[in-house]
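USER: For my understanding, would you kindly supply a protein sequence with its structure tokens?

ASSISTANT:
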Amino acid sequence: MTSVLDPALPETAPAVTFADLDLPAPLREAVLGLGFTTPTAIQAEAIPALLAGRDITGVAQTGTGKTAAFGLPLLAAVDPELREVQAIVLAPTRELAMQVAEALESFASKMPGLEVVPVYGGSPYLPQQRALRGGAQVVVGTPGRVIDHLDRGSLKLDAVRFLALDEADEMLRMGFVDDVDRIASATPASKQVALFSATMPPAIRRVAAQHLTDPVEITVARQSSTVSSVRQTYAVVPFRHKAGALARVLAVSDADAAIVFVRTRSAAEDVAVSLVERGVAAAYISGDVAQGDREKIVERVRSGAINVLVATDVAARGLDIDRIGLVVNFDVPGEPEAYVHRIGRTGRAGRTGEALTFVTPNENGKLRAIERTTRQQLEQIQIPSPADVSAHRVAALLARVPARRELGRLDLYRTAAAEFLAAHPDVDASDLVAVLAALAVGDEGPAPRPTEGDDLDDALSRAHLAPERGGPRRDGAEGGRPRSAARPSSGGPRYRLAVGSKDGVQPGGIVGALTNEGGLTGKDLGKIDIFSTFSLVEIPAGLSPEAFDRIGRARVAGRPLRIRVDEGPRAASRPDRGASRGPAHHGPRTGRDGAREGGYGTREGGYGSREGGRDFGGRDSRPRRSTTPR
């Protein structure tokens, strides 16, 4: 995405700090709270000019800090108490629109009542229309969808005070110049305009001449993008196999800790939940994570309590964690410079690091752009197979044998092994050692053949990646083999939770509450049915009184769970009166805009994990009604 702020990257800039800029107190507090102190060159030049009311044209590459350069003055021009659109940002792609909106929301975290709504193609109109009718003050959108809302009457631009055109040359290349002209012409002539472009072809200069008044011209050179201390690799991974591939990569990595980068905040939550359900000590941060929670999560990564951090580009700005030895780009970044920012999180202070990028089969163009920017060719590697993971774990286990042997106190185990071999003459010592090693690394044998609709890659991963039974819990999720969504009801005890689809609850919220507060793991949970005003969850082994009490006090989507044993007939359970139909089975969803990736989760939520991570429950315009944890 368009880079925001990054004091960790070298760049020549004036000797000023954000505290020196004349930003309103809420914006200054938010920026400093995100850990940023020194503006980049373009920020140091553009922010004062825009705060003074001048129009600007900025010639700057992605990665120089353009979003904050126009975003902070834009927010300063908005009145949160006025419930109408006062600022609009036009971006060429939906990915950039989403990411700019996320950045603006993080900057506006100390401005109560201010709402930012992204509008872009490939997503439903209704949620966007609701947000616009609700009085959002800032709109970030692609030209085509903004025009659609103008035509429908759901977007009014009469009160716009600030217009930002981001990557104007890209909008020109995509044929949006006429749309940009129409949108700009629909705004008041007195508005302030910031136009940013990597180049200034004649067509862009004509746009600037028509819509800008005596602009200040700012030009910033591209920063150095060579990253020599990081081994850069990529692997071709189909989208639906990414979660399993990530788990296997992490399982064989020797890095102390890793950062996994995703494009959107909802993807950050989804991927983190997927890892936690697989037994990985993971947490996530995104632009809507409160600063206090962010600091707690980062400190837990530094201390070793968390080994994997899933993050968006905005949330990772300013991070400097010595333990990070691996960066995984779960999603290819939209811009090559963002790739440079990401992999710069490892290989610091004279150390070496590794960076792996997952590339889907149709993303070769993005890969080539990254290679041109970094001026080096990325090395293609193969994702470890489930058997590779087991071999790696066995090797690590056997490496501990000499030290454990020296410690002694093995008579109990020698006796048990001898008695077993005596009772089973068909088993020799080598077979016994092999079976014990397999069990120790979580390999319980070949998995059943996946049913129709199940993910073969995920099924194999579950067979090989289940952690040791009885092993230590990590961050509230020991893991184990999660149930397939295609599995039937377990027939075990069923519990009723006082939250449902009307509350915006999602399966990830319920899974997060039960695993964090109830001391459960993914393998402990059976089928989850979400109805209109309540939910049912099967827990085959039941709950202890202590776990029952803790879960009852937990909150999902802002509402208490108030768990109780379900006493209704299993075969005839029906949704509450508000439900339009019985539960329908759904698996993980991946919308066309790529906003939901990798597992369960929601954009906003009401359940905070004990690790200080973001919520595992929340609101979404398309609720799931039934699932089993995966």
Observations:
- DSSP finds 21 helices and 21 strands in the chain.
- The mean pLDDT is 77.
